[in-house]
């Protein structure tokens, strides 16, 4: 599965990187961070097939770094999807989608709905109901739920279903268009978290896999569980979708190897865990806003992202 992702990114993005390096503009000063030789850090990160985790406290520079990475991805022709919880990405050159969101009716609804929560708490109840319904519509699901499940499971599943009926329209047969999915307009945090999990799964599952794609998600806004993140990463490998994961804490230990880690002011717990994993990173003391340790495998380098300016 990893080879597919490597082929997509290692061929098309590498070619774009090579074309840019040979162009006259490549010699111009780079506003996007530190240079290694003649290459920008953002370019090097975009050439990698690994996912990227931006880890740090609020105000440490994670969102700024994400914007520079997205800007680099756009210049490579990568299709970028951003789940925007706080209207932080409105200054990027991407179309913006607002609720109700239009998604393809041919998307794998049973699997998508099952990702909205952990197994046994209603999500799989929705999935099985969709699979058994003659028409994979939200109305058919609602009828099946009441007929098939006990009150507790049906109630939990129906709560997720109501969120979808409120913010999702199933009438488009095209793959998801790249852009910013504006979740900041949804006032209820629980509804926003459930919807974001659904949209993240939908974007990855509906990606055709023939073109490099990038999905930017935030753990804090999604309330993502380890089960959800593990499932999303598994599918993303099959679809050739890279993920930028923004969080205050490290990904689950068994998933760390899937990421290039950018450690901003991540706190002593994260550094202790990395030390236990034999990834000796210097102590976080002394890191200024925008500075981070870039950890790839067993190597680490300090990099810096400048303040964000719209290009």
Nutshell version of this structure?
The chain has two domains: about 230 residues, 3-Layer(aba) Sandwich (Rossmann fold), CATH 3.40.50; about 60 residues.
Lay out the secondary structure.
Elements lengths: L1 H21 L12 E2 L2 E2 H7 L3 E5 L6 H14 L3 E6 L11 E2 L3 E4 L4 H6 L8 H10 L5 H11 L2 H17 E5 L6 E4 L6 H18 L6 E6 H4 L3 H14 L1 E7 L11 E5 L4 H9 L14 E6 L2 E6 L7
Parallel strand pairs: 3-10, 3-11, 4-8, 4-9, 5-8, 6-7, 9-10
Antiparallel strand pairs: 1-2, 11-12, 12-13
Q: What's the level 1 CATH class of the largest domain?
A: Alpha Beta
Radius of gyration: 20 Å
Helix-strand topology string = HEEHEHEEEHHHHEEHEHHEEHEE
Terminal Cα separation, in Å? Answer: 35 Å
> Strand tally, please?
13
* CATH architectural group of the largest domain: 3-Layer(aba) Sandwich
Briefly note the structural class of the backbone: alpha/beta
Pfam family, one: DUF87
InterPro entries: HerA_central, P-loop_NTPase
Domain Helicase HerA central: 50-93
Organism: Infirmifilum uzonense
Structure write-up:
- β12 and β13 (299-304) form a beta hairpin.
- The two termini are 35 Å apart.
- α5 packs across α6, α6 (138-148) packs antiparallel against α7 (151-167) and α8 runs parallel beside α10 (226-239).
- The longest helix has 21 residues, at 2-22.
- Helix content is 42%, strand content 19%.
- It is globular and about 60 Å long.
- The strands form 3 sheets. Strands 5-8-4-9-10-3-11-12-13 form a 9-stranded mixed sheet, sandwiched between helices. The protein has a two-stranded antiparallel ribbon with strand order 1-2.
- It has 11 helices and 13 strands.
- The protein has 311 residues and is of the alpha/beta class.
- The protein folds into 2 domains: 2-104 and 174-304, 3-Layer(aba) Sandwich (Rossmann fold), CATH 3.40.50; 109-168.
- Mean pLDDT is 76; it is low at 1-8 and 16-38.
């Amino acid at each position: 599965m990893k080879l597919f992702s490597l082929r997509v990114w290692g061929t098309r993005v590498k070619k774009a990187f090579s074309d840019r390096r040979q162009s006259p503009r490549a010699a111009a000063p780079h506003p996007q961070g530190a240079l290694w030789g003649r290459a920008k850090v953002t370019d090097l990160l975009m050439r990698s097939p690994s996912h990227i985790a931006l880890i740090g406290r609020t105000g440490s520079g994670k969102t700024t770094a994400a914007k520079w990475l997205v800007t680099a991805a756009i210049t490579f022709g990568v299709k970028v999807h951003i789940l925007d919880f706080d209207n932080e990405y409105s200054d990027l050159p991407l179309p913006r989608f607002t609720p109700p969101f239009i998604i393809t009716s041919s998307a794998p609804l049973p699997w998508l709905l099952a990702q909205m929560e952990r197994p046994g708490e209603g999500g799989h109840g929705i999935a099985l109901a969709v699979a058994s319904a003659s028409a994979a519509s939200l109305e058919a699901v609602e009828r099946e739920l009441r007929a098939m499940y006990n009150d507790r499971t049906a109630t939990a599943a129906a709560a997720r279903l109501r969120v979808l009926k409120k913010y999702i329209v199933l009438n488009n047969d095209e793959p998801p268009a790249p852009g910013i999915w504006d979740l900041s307009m949804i006032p209820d945090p629980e509804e926003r978290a459930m919807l974001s999990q659904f949209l993240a799964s939908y974007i990855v599952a509906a990606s055709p896999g023939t073109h490099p794609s990038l999905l930017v998600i935030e753990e804090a806004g999604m309330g993502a569980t380890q089960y959800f993140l593990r499932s999303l990463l598994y599918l993303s490998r099959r679809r050739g979708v890279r993920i930028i994961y923004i969080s205050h804490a490290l990904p689950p230990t068994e998933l760390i190897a899937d990421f290039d880690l950018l450690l901003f002011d991540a706190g002593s717990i994260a550094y202790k865990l990395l030390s236990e994993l034999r990834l000796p990173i210097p102590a976080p003391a002394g890191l200024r806003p925008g500075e981070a340790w870039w950890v790839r495998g067993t190597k680490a380098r300090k990099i810096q992202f400048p303040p964000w300016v719209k290009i």
